[in-house]
Specification:
Order of helices and strands: HHHEE
Helix content: 25-40%
Shape: elongated
Strand order of the largest sheet: 1-2
Strand content: 5-15%
Number of helices: 3
Structural class: alpha+beta
Largest sheet: 2 strands, antiparallel
Radius of gyration: 38 Å
């Protein structure tokens, strides 16, 4: 089961509690000028140090009957052929009849 990650609101509330506890114990917050970075220039990027998966890897249980049922459904769907749509009846179209000299004589409707 995947562990639920804390929301931003929960993280913010946790930080506020820790800060209040720190100040109650006599801690002091120093003023840091705007634009000062907490990252040292030679440090590696933070995204390389972050772990994507916090939990240890879990072993998986192979369930052959479930896999077999899924494969059977998949193969059944592959066997089906799509139903053919009935062919549309041909529409009549207009054709021009020419005489021996290439002049149009008349127009007629033809079913192809």
């Amino acid at each position: 089961m995947v562990k639920k990650l804390p929301t931003k609101a929960e993280q913010s509330a946790q930080m506020a509690r820790e800060m209040r506890s720190f100040l109650k114990q006599g801690g002091k917050v120093d003023h840091v000028p705007r634009g000062t970075s907490g990252k040292e220039p030679g440090d590696p990027p933070t995204y390389l140090a972050r772990r994507l998966f916090a939990e240890p890897r879990e072993s998986r249980t192979f369930v052959p009957e479930v896999v077999a049922a899924i494969e059977a459904r998949r193969l059944e769907n592959l066997k089906r052929t799509p139903k053919r749509k009935p062919a549309r009846p041909p529409k009549p179209r207009r054709k021009i009849i020419y005489d021996d000299f290439g002049e149009p004589l008349r127009r007629v409707w033809v079913d192809d």
